[in-house]
C-alpha cells in the first residue's frame, strides 16, 4: 500500500490540487527561483493523475506494473515535486530544498541514477524530448505485451520543437494506443501568446492529420479530467492526445493567464497574497 | 604478433557490427534495434530480417531515434541506435546529452561511415568531430574498433556494461588483422608491436597504418611501438604513461579532427603524469572533400607516410 492512497472524491481531489498550489507558492518563496505559471496551471492534471488515475505505488516506485509518467517540460518541476511528496514518494519537508545545492529537487528534474529522487524515470529540461521517450517506452511495453499505460505531459509552446512532430509521427506509425499525451494548452510562452511567437493552430487538426485520436478538456476542471482519462485507454490502434485548456498561474488572480509569470517566482508580498487566495486545506502546509 | 602486410584479409567493420547484432538478438530477447532509413547501409537490415518484431523503424529522424531508444531502455530493453557518424552524434547531440548520458540510459549508439575515409560523399558526411562530441559527455563510453573482428567483439561485449556507449566504425572494407579470440576489454589497450624509440597510439582505421609505418621504420633502424587504443573513454592511462616513460615520444594516429579526439585524450593523460614530446596524425582543423579513401587519407595526412614523416620529424625533439 502507498503511504498516501488514491483519492476518489472530486471535492477532496480539488482540495488536494489547492494544497499542491499552496506548496508550489511556498517552495518558490523559499527557493527565490523557479517557475510559477506553468506549475499552478497544471496542479489539477497532476492531482487527477497521481491521486486517482495512475497505477502507482510510492513505496515501490519501480514496480513492474506501474504506469509510466514522463514530463517533457522539466521547468514545471515544482508541481511534480509537490505532487510526488504529497503522494508519499518522499517527505514533505524536502520541498524546502528546491533548487538548493546538494539537494535532489533540481531546478529541472534530474535522473534517478544521478540524484536519486524516486518517481522520476529520466531527466527533463531541454524541451521537445519527452514524447520520444514516452513513445519508446510504449513500444517496449507493447513488445512485451504488458498492460501498463504511458502518460506524457507536454507544453503547447513546446510543440514548436521539431522533435515532437517526429515523435508524433512515430507514435502513430507504431500504433501506440497505450500512450496518452497531455498538452498543457495555456496559450502562453515566455515571449507572449503562441500565435504571436510562432503559430501552432489549428492544433487539433494537426494531431488528427498525424493519425492521433484527439480529446479536448478543461484542464482546470476536476470533473472533466476524471472522465477524460477513462476514455484514452481504448485499444484502438491510435495514440491519444488530450488538449487540456488551462490557465497559466491558475488559482492566483494576479498571475492567471499572464505569460510574464512563466519563469519567475513571487516575491514575499506577492506570495502572501497568493496564499490568501488559495485557502488553507485539511492537508496542511509543509512550512 | 605478425601481420600479413602484403595481402591482408579485407572485411567491412560495419559487417562486424551486423554479425554481432544477430548473435546478440538470438541470445537476448531484450535486444532491439532502431532503424533510421539507412538500415541497408549500416547493415541493421540483417537484424531486421531475423527479428522483424524487434526492429523499430523511426524514419529519417535521428533526434527522435535517440529519445525513442531512451524510452525503450526505460521499459527494460537494450536498444541499439544506428546511423552514419555525423547523424548519430552531431545532429542528436542534445538528445544524447540529456536523455542518454545524463540519464545514464542503457542505449548503444553504433555509428557507421565515420571519418574522412567514407570518401566520395564529401565533407557533409565525413564525421570528424564525433569522438570529441561523445568524449566530453559524462557516463559515455567511447570505442573505436580497428577492424572487423574488433568491431564484432566491441558490439558483443557492450551489452555486458549497463550504460550508454558510442561505438564508431567505417563503411569500406579494411584489413582484418586482430585475433578474433583475443582478450578484448573496454578501457584496456593492446600493444600490437613492441618498440623503444617512439610510441604510435592509434585507433580505428589508423591502427593498420601505424602497423605498416612501424614495419617500415624498423627497416630504417627505428623501433616504433604500436598501441591500439580502441577505447578512448575511459582511456587506458597506465599503458600510456608506461609507453611515454619507455619511449620518450608519442605520436597519436586517428581518422578525426586533431582537436578533441585521440590526440587530446592522450595529451590529457600525459600532461598530468609524464609529459613527453607528442605530435598528431589527424585531420588538421579542416573539413574534408570528395575522393577515394586512399586519396583522402594521403591528402589529409592520415596514412602510413604521414606517420613516418611525423616520427622522423619528432625524433630529434626527444631528450
What would you note in describing this structure?
The complex is a heterodimer of chains A (287) and B (319). In chain A, β2, α6 and β3 form a beta-alpha-beta unit. Chain A is α/β, with parallel strands linked by helices and 287 residues long. In chain A, α2 (37-53) crosses α9 and α5 packs parallel to α6 (162-173). The longest helix of chain A has 22 residues, at 10-31. Helix content of chain A is 38%, strand content 11%. In chain A, the strands form two sheets. A five-stranded parallel β-sheet of chain A has the order 1-2-3-7-6, sandwiched between helices. In chain A, strands 4-5 form a two-stranded antiparallel sheet. With 319 residues, chain B is an alpha/beta fold. Chain B folds into two domains: 10-175, 3-Layer(aba) Sandwich (Rossmann fold); 190-317, Rossmann fold (3-Layer(aba) Sandwich), CATH 3.40.50.920. Chain B is 39% helix and 20% strand. The chains are: A alpha/beta (287), B alpha/beta (319).
What's the short story on this structure?
The complex is a heterodimer of chains A (287) and B (319). Chain A has 287 residues and is an alpha/beta fold.
Average residue-wise pLDDT of chain B: 97
Q: Give the C-level CATH assignment of chain A.
A: Alpha Beta
Using only C-alpha atoms, the radius of gyration of chain A works out to 18 Å
Q: Kindly provide the name of the CATH class of the largest domain in chain B.
A: Alpha Beta
Number of domains of chain A: 1
Please, what is the oligomeric state?
heterodimer
Could you list the spans of chain B in which at least 5 consecutive residues all have pLDDT below 50?
none
Uncertain runs of chain A: none
| Structure annotation, total helices of chain B | 12
Amino acid at each position: 500500500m502507498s503511504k498516501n492512497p488514491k483519492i476518489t472524491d472530486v471535492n477532496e481531489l480539488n482540495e488536494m490540487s489547492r494544497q499542491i498550489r499552496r506548496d508550489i507558492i511556498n517552495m518558490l518563496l523559499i527557493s527565490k527561483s523557479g517557475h510559477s505559471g506553468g506549475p499552478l496551471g497544471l496542479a489539477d492534471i497532476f492531482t487527477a493523475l497521481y491521486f486517482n488515475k495512475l497505477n502507482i505505488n510510492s513505496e515501490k516506485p519501480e514496480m513492474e506494473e506501474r504506469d509510466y509518467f514522463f514530463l517533457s517540460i522539466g521547468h514545471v518541476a515544482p508541481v511534480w515535486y509537490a505532487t510526488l511528496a504529497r503522494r508519499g514518494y518522499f517527505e514533505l519537508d524536502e520541498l524546502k530544498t528546491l533548487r538548493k545545492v546538494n539537494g535532489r529537487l533540481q531546478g529541472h528534474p534530474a535522473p534517478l541514477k544521478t540524484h536519486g529522487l524516486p518517481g522520476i524515470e529520466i531527466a527533463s529540461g531541454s524541451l521537445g524530448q519527452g514524447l520520444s521517450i514516452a513513445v519508446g517506452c510504449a513500444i517496449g511495453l507493447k513488445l512485451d505485451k504488458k498492460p501498463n499505460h504511458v502518460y506524457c505531459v507536454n507544453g503547447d509552446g513546446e510543440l514548436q520543437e521539431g522533435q515532437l512532430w517526429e515523435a508524433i509521427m512515430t507514435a502513430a506509425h507504431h500504433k501506440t494506443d497505450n500512450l496518452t499525451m497531455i498538452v498543457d494548452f495555456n496559450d502562453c510562452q515566455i515571449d507572449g501568446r503562441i500565435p504571436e511567437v510562432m503559430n501552432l493552430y489549428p492544433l487539433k487538426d494537426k494531431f488528427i492529420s498525424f493519425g492521433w485520436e484527439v480529446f479536448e478538456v478543461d484542464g482546470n476542471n476536476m470533473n472533466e479530467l476524471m472522465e477524460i482519462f477513462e476514455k484514452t485507454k481504448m485499444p484502438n490502434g491510435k495514440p491519444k492526445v488530450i488538449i487540456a485548456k488551462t490557465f497559466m498561474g491558475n488559482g492566483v488572480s494576479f498571475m492567471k493567464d499572464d505569460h510574464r509569470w512563466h519563469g519567475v517566482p513571487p516575491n514575499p508580498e506577492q506570495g502572501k497574497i497568493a496564499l490568501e487566495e488559495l485557502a488553507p486545506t485539511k492537508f496542511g502546509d509543509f512550512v | 604478433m605478425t601481420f600479413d602486410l602484403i595481402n591482408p584479409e579485407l572485411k567491412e567493420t560495419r559487417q562486424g557490427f551486423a554479425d554481432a547484432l544477430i548473435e546478440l538478438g538470438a541470445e537476448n530477447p531484450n535486444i532491439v534495434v532502431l532503424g533510421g532509413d539507412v538500415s541497408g547501409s549500416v547493415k541493421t537490415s540483417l537484424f531486421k530480417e531475423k527479428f522483424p518484431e524487434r526492429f523499430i523503424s523511426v524514419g529519417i529522424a535521428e533526434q527522435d531515434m535517440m529519445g525513442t531508444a531512451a524510452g525503450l531502455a526505460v521499459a527494460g530493453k537494450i536498444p541499439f541506435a544506428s546511423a552514419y557518424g555525423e547523424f548519430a552524434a552531431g545532429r542528436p547531440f542534445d538528445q544524447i546529452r540529456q536523455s542518454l548520458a545524463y540519464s545514464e540510459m542503457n542505449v548503444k549508439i553504433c555509428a557507421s561511415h565515420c571519418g574522412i575515409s567514407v570518401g566520395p560523399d564529401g565533407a557533409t558526411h565525413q564525421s570528424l568531430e564525433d569522438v570529441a562530441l561523445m568524449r566530453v559527455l559524462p557516463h559515455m563510453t567511447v570505442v573505436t574498433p580497428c577492424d572487423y573482428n574488433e568491431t564484432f567483439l566491441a558490439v558483443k561485449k557492450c551489452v555486458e556494461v549497463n550504460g550508454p556507449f558510442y561505438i564508431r566504425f567505417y563503411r569500406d572494407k579494411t584489413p582484418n588483422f586482430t585475433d578474433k579470440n583475443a582478450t578484448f576489454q573496454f578501457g584496456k589497450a593492446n600493444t600490437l608491436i613492441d618498440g623503444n624509440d617512439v610510441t604510435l597510439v592509434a585507433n580505428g582505421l589508423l591502427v593498420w597504418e601505424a602497423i605498416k609505418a612501424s614495419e617500415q621504420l624498423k627497416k630504417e633502424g627505428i623501433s616504433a611501438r604500436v598501441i591500439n587504443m580502441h577505447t578512448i573513454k575511459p582511456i587506458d592511462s597506465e599503458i600510456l604513461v608506461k609507453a611515454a616513460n619507455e619511449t620518450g615520444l608519442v605520436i597519436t594516429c586517428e581518422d578525426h579532427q586533431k582537436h578533441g579526439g585521440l590526440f587530446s585524450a592522450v595529451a590529457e593523460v600525459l600532461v598530468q603524469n609524464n609529459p613527453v614530446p607528442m605530435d598528431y596524425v589527424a585531420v588538421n582543423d579542416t573539413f574534408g572533400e570528395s575522393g577515394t579513401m586512399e586519396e583522402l587519407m594521403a591528402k589529409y595526412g592520415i596514412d602510413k607516410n604521414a606517420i613516418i614523416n611525423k616520427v622522423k620529424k619528432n625524433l630529434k625533439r626527444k631528450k
